[in-house]
Amino acid sequence: MTSEVKDDLRYGAVPWARFHHSCGSGGDVPALLEEVRLGDDEASGRALGRLWNRVCHQGGTSASGALAVPFLIRIALAYPRHRAALLRLVGAVARRPHFGDGSRAGLLRAGEPAGSIRIEPSGYQGTWSIEAARQAVAADANLLCFLLDDPEPAVRQAAAYALAAALPPPGDAPGALYARLAGESDPATRACVVLAIGQLAWEERDPTAVAQLREWWQAPSQPTDVRVSAALAWLCLVADPVPAELDTLLDTAVTDELTALLAPVPWLRDAQDGAKDNGLLVCLTQMRNPDDFPWLTGG
Prior knowledge:
Elements: H1 3-7, H2 29-38, H3 41-55, H4 63-78, H5 83-93, H6 126-139, H7 141-147, H8 153-163, H9 173-183, H10 187-202, H11 207-218, H12 224-237, H13 244-253, H14 256-261, H15 266-272, H16 279-288
Helix pairs in contact: 2-3, 2-4, 4-5, 4-6, 5-8, 7-8, 8-10, 9-10, 10-11, 10-12, 11-12, 15-16
């Protein structure tokens, strides 16, 4: 997809009809994108809900969702209305369905495991669609980095969530996230940035990120939200048993106040997936007691 097609929102240059789930009852994807962009508040909100169902039905990415990613990012950039929701949709399209998987193997896994097969409604392999969406995120990482400085915390959180799905190598994304963390005052946004740093490092187990995450969770001078989110990310990047000092940190730092502060974090919402417990508690339970969840293998 050329930059002219993306920047000028030339939907007609995209072969939507090749992917059966992009058209049909409820409106096709280009029409819904335009309704989100140009409709009045009520119509735009309805279109966004229908668009989400169309391209990320029940948490599963579709080929049409991957094609929509560049347009979702540009609409979010140009129009403040629904900006956070549009970026969360980008992040959801570019991540495998998690269905309550907050395990060490699963929380930060964006792509499907090697060799897995998931057929989407269009008839294509879901692994292809997720990879295409991640490539689209990587191609527009500079736009998402810009949105990390949005005045609204919800937008900054969603931008970090979307950026974290970029297919490696992520270019300047890690540097932009470190810079955002240095100037961030919102606890949920700090947690999002830390988890995004971890997710970008996950596939290659980048040793610099692993060392930095460990330094953060061990540092009493860091805010509690940073220490706990760094602990989650670090556990996902290493195979070590949970250290005793980390167990102590989690026992003392994870309070009702902290779980409430971090409730908006998209990764934790993915892990919660309708569970009664808060998403942070779901993750901690699964990570610290993996033998109780043998079906959670990151698959």
